[in-house]
């Protein structure tokens, strides 16, 4: 993952895409449909019915049937929606080639993208088409920028390396030195009034421009002189946005030059903020480990045990952990046991399953009763134990260390275990 403290939502989205990416059809028969938010359901239905008709021309009888079945599934899913969601919709359906017994398995997946998609298409291929969704994941985090003094304000959005100017406004407020002729008190009062009106306008634009920006991780406020601080002291900014303010930056200029200055001066700061939380949680773990106070534990078995004992403050999981938490059930006596299997090793594990003897009755065979992403299992366990869980990237030295040196799973516990 290229950026950010890994939020759980983002992590889940990425994992889901990775799972879909692995699936293959036997023939060219996996159906992908993307629908943008502005489309009407009945229009999409009409187009899909046409595709269904066109599919009659597919030569292979099996493929034809599979494609038509998949299209039927997509239409069924579509009917469950009254309107297309605000960010659009992606539906995937098809007969997945299975390694077992050669029996294909029809599966359907509905994805509501975390950010709006604008494409409309139907594809029928060997695999699902996921590029538009992976692109969303690659979007860099977004920051809002306001540069202001008492004369002008400029609003910009910083995405990755690029800052786009969204709006420039002028205050219409005259300078501090009054024009001749007016009484100085009256002049001061008028100036205050105009300034207040301008400050309110700035606050209004902040709401209009930044409130609904997806993935907005923070706002940076720049400008020459103390006007920005005066503005911040007033109650011109909605609290949801106020909470996102990361820092203020003094600049020599306002306007587009000012925005450039803010971007240049915030680079290292943004990098720092981005990974601060991840660094902090890993450092906390390392601190306890170094002090040998018994409050640091690592390894999947140890951490799961601590969670079951409701003895965890924070669980740290590397996003690189790709394992299944599998529950096996004995077909003879119903005995259950759990195993943790690398996702890469799954096929071999399934093949070796028949050779496993039941721990209780000595017979078997075992069958897979449940199979879940280990990280999702840890999330549930952490919730039950009222512990925090942090998914940690490998973008920092600390995150890399968590993964390489501690197997990617660690915890800070409440009391010592030994
Ligand atoms: Zn048994």
What descriptive keywords fit this protein?
alpha+beta; single chain; 12 helices; five-stranded mixed β-sheet; disordered N terminus; binds zinc ion; 418 residues; four-stranded antiparallel β-sheet; flat; 16 strands
Kindly describe this structure:
The N terminus is likely disordered. Helix 2 packs antiparallel against helix 3 and helix 8 packs parallel to helix 12. The chain is of the alpha+beta class. The structure holds zinc ion. Zinc ion binds next to loops.
Distance between the termini: 37 Å
Bound molecules: zinc ion
**Shape verdict:** flat
- The secondary-structure element order is HEHHEEEHEEEHEHHEHEHEEEHEHEHE
What integer value in Å does the Rg equal?
A: 28 Å
| Number of separate strands | 16
Major sheet strand order: 7-6-5-8-9
Beta-strand percent range = 25-35%
* Low-confidence residue ranges: 1-5
Fraction in helix: 40-55%
Number of helices: 12
Helix/strand/pairing category: alpha+beta
Q: What would the average pLDDT be, to the nearest integer? A: 90
Note the main sheet: 5 strands, mixed
List the helices and strands and how they pair.
Layout: H1 8-22, E1 30-35, H2 41-54, H3 61-79, E2 89-96, E3 105-111, E4 121-125, H4 131-138, E5 142-148, E6 152-159, E7 162-170, H5 184-210, E8 216-223, H6 227-233, H7 239-242, E9 245-250, H8 255-291, E10 296-298, H9 300-308, E11 312-318, E12 323-330, E13 336-342, H10 346-352, E14 366-373, H11 374-384, E15 388-392, H12 397-406, E16 409-413
Parallel strand pairs: 5-8, 8-9, 11-15
Antiparallel strand pairs: 1-2, 1-4, 2-3, 5-6, 6-7, 10-16, 11-16, 12-13, 12-14
Helix pairs in contact: 2-3, 8-12
The structure holds zinc ion.
Zinc ion (ZN) is lined by residues 330, 332-333, 335, 358, 360-361, 363.
